[in-house]
Amino acid sequence: MAKVGIVGAGPAGLLLAHLLHREGIEAVVLEARSREYLETSPHRIRAGVLEWGSKEILRRAGLGQRMLEQGLEHRGVYLAFDGALHRLDFPSLTGKSIWVYGQQFVVQDMIRLHLAQGGEIRFEHEVLGLEEDAGGLWVVYRTPEGATERMRCDFVVGADGSHSRLRGQIPGARLHQKNYPFAWLGILAEAPPAAEELIYASHPRGFALFSMRSPTRSRNYLQVGVEERLEDWPEERIWAELSERLGGVAEVRPGPLLEKSLTPLRSLVLEPMQHGRLFLMGDAAHVVPPTGAKGMNLALCDAVLLYRALLAYYRQGEEGHLLRYTQEALRHVWQAELFSYFMTTLLHTPVDAFDDGLRTAQLRHLAESPHLQRFLAENYVGLHTSGRYPGWVGEGVLA
Ligand code: PHB
Predict the structure, then answer these.
(1) Number of domains forming the structure of the chain
(2) Which residue in 11, 193, 289, 290 is the catalytic one?
(3) Is residue 254 part of a domain?
(4) Cβ(106)–Cβ(61) below 8 Å
(5) Are 77 and 89 contacting, i.e. CB atoms less than 8 angstroms apart?
(6) Phi and psi dihedrals of 258, rounded to 5?
(7) Do 100 and 72 form a contact (C-beta atoms < 8 A)?
(8) pLDDT tens by residue, the chain, 399 residues
(9) Cβ 340 under 6 angstroms from ligand 1
(10) Which structural domain, as residue segments, surrounds residue 305?
(11) Does residue 188 have its Cβ closer than 6 Å to ligand 1?
């Protein structure tokens, strides 16, 4: 029997497991894929931006050593439009900064540390469903050998990603959804980034993002139509398009491609995020378009909130935080949904000319208005999510 059964070894599941384990509360992580796949497979676009508060969460959870050594602290981002670069300076707008550090590295660090400290992660264990009987709540899963087994848990946590199987286990839940008429074509290349900080470029031909994983490795994205295929985008076409959309404000330096992928953009919120002794975290409960770089940050916030609630239950027998989990989480979730929607509509070229007029007006306003710049910067560094007003999400929980 495990006290807490956690489904999915992504940032949310692993952080929760690690925090509980540190407090002596037994948690078992079940993960359908292999450790190697999780640590190395470039299967899907994963953002690489940690809010100020997320950096603090990882540091205080004892998971931040490599991030602090190898991650890149960024004190601003650029917006590019109308042929000019506009820099938003985070310290002067918010007093904070962000960290650029790939999600895959975060997951590697978490797996390594959790296992080294005696934590339990069962890889290649596919969860099939839940059962409840007089004996309690059971997670049913298939072992790597193909046997079907079940494990009794006090609580089950679904952190099984955007295609979550456990999402369907919340009767009567409402799914608030929005699909956008764009996708992102993402590349990872062995090439120096276009600038030392991220550039979000709005261009009549479409949005482009210039990001990085290190000073020699760039991570760039192009807005494309949802119907496009990877085969339509040979390397030369990608570099030419990136260069065109950067609009001459900086130089794109091509290099060998390490990876290429397509992701449609969508927003999704499930409400409630819990039912009885089942709780959802991260992408299983909510999805944001990547434009605001919020996905991993939201997942880490959920894990901290649920950790606090489980700790109160196991230490004081107090159930209030568990009962209020959805209500508390939805505060940061909707804030991030708002910001991700704002960034997506602000920066992507829409089909409709009227929408484009509104968007251009807002971009020009942003270039001139310290108030709008502060709105963007506060949301980007996460003052309203992990670094939430009036206090930090880990306040009184993570020393
Ligand atoms: C990334 O580096 O992969 C990245 C950065 C910022 C975003 C999305 C993705 O908004």
Answers:
(1) 1
(2) 290
(3) no
(4) no
(5) no
(6) -100, -20
(7) yes
(8) 569 999 999 999 999 999 999 999 999 999 999 999 998 876 555 778 999 999 999 999 999 999 999 999 999 999 999 999 999 999 999 999 999 999 999 999 999 999 999 999 999 999 999 999 988 899 999 999 999 999 999 999 999 999 999 999 999 999 999 999 999 999 999 999 999 999 999 999 999 999 998 999 999 999 999 999 999 999 999 999 999 999 999 999 999 999 999 999 999 999 999 999 999 999 999 999 999 999 999 999 999 999 999 999 999 999 999 999 999 999 999 999 999 999 999 999 999 999 999 999 999 999 999 999 999 999 999 987 777 655 678 888 898
(9) no
(10) 2-72+99-177+267-351
(11) no
Instruction: Identify whether 43 is part of a domain.
Output: yes
Q: Any idea what the CATH number is for the domain that residue 276 is in? A: 3.50.50.60
CB of 379 sitting under 6 A from ligand 1: no
Q: Is this model's pTM higher than 0.70 or not?
A: yes
Tokens 């990603």, residue located: 161
Task: Return the C-alpha torsion angle 263, 269, 270, 272, nearest 10.
Answer: 150
Ligand 1 touching residue 293 (CB < 6 A)? yes
Give nearest CA residue, ligand 1 atom 6: 293
> Of ligand 1's atoms, which has the minimum distance to the CA of residue 291?
10
Q: Which atom of ligand 1 is nearest to the CA of 100?
A: 2
For atom 7 of ligand 1, the residue with the nearest CA is 293
234 is catalytic: no
Measured from the Cα of 47, ligand 1's closest atom is 3
In a domain, 306, yes or no: yes
Catalytic residue check, 371: no
Choosing from 96, 203, 294, 348, which is the catalytic residue? 294
The residue whose C-alpha atom lies closest to atom 9 belonging to ligand 1 is 47
In a domain? residue 172: yes
